[in-house]
Amino acid sequence: LDGYSFNTIKAVVSTQSTGDNLGICHLSTGDMLRAIAKEDSPLGRKVANTLSAGALVTDSLVIEIIEANLQSDACKTGFMLDGFPRNLVQAEKLDEYLEGQDEPLNNVIEFKVKDDILVERISGRMIHQSSGRTYHEVFAPPKVPMTDDVTGEPLMKRPDDNPTVLQRRLDIYHEQTAPLITFYEKKGILRSIDAMQSPEKVFEDISGHFKS
User: Fold this and answer.
1) Which one of 3, 90, 100, 135 is CB 3.0 to 4.6 Å from 126, fit for a cystine?
2) Tens of pLDDT along 32-47?
3) Strand ranges (DSSP E) for the chain?
4) What is the pLDDT confidence band of residue 80, given thresholds at 50, 70 and 90?
């Protein structure tokens, strides 16, 4: 997901604007892997190198991380997976795990965005690291360049948010992730959302789906 849709997902989970919390945990594989990448360990360095190249980490590692988090108390009443599964192997392993827990997946959301728009959105993204607040050079600039509006602390740009790495990530998406659309369509649980709309309309569409 680009930052635009990522913040929409966080809003749907907490829905602070309406005061109507869904009461589920939000698991972002990207956040979890970037946390591991900061560790001064062989695994941390390996994950960091993989992410900076725009490649994917091994299925076994991602699945292990997801399963460990799904067993936490925070996810007992439900969960939203962000950035997982990314290929058919991961999807099948997830189904196998959830069926063993008698908790099959019941909703999958696809954000439909043109590739060139994704590149524009992501390459201009800026992040406040400790809070996760996201800004954009064009669409949502901070009041002071490269400075968080709330804390006044400096913003950062992720090293993999550049056109070369982004194109690699898009190539991987079309090759490995796009087949999941058909996979979940056959299960009857896929909902496609037009993410070319305003953030408010995307939020409305997702929220309406979960409340219907």
Assistant:
1) 135
2) 888 888 889 888 888 8
3) 25-28, 79-82, 108-112, 125-127, 134-136, 190-194
4) confident
Give yes or no for a contact between 32 and 142, defined as CB atoms under 8 angstroms apart.
no
Q: Residue 25: which residues within 8 A CB-CB, separation 6 or more? A: 69, 72, 74, 75, 78, 79, 80
Pair 66, 81: CB distance under 8 Å: yes
Distance CA 44, CA 33 (A): 9
What percent of the chain lies above the pLDDT cut of 90? 28
Residues 103-139: pLDDT tens digits?
Answer: 889 889 888 889 888 888 888 899 998 888 889 998 8
Tens of pLDDT, residues 143-158: 999 999 999 999 999 8
Q: One-letter amino acid identity for 84?
A: F
Residue 10 has pLDDT above 70, yes or no: no
- Nearest to 86, CA basis, from 118, 55, 124: 55
Q: What are phi and psi of 88, to 5 degrees?
A: -65, -35
Rounded Cα–Cα distance for residues 34 and 70 (Å)? 19
Question: Tokens in use for 111?
Answer: 């954000």
Phi, psi of 108 (to 5 degrees): -135, 130
- Of 202, 60, 90, the closest CA to residue 47 belongs to 60
Separation in Å, CA 186 to CA 29, 82, 83, 181: 25, 21, 20, 9
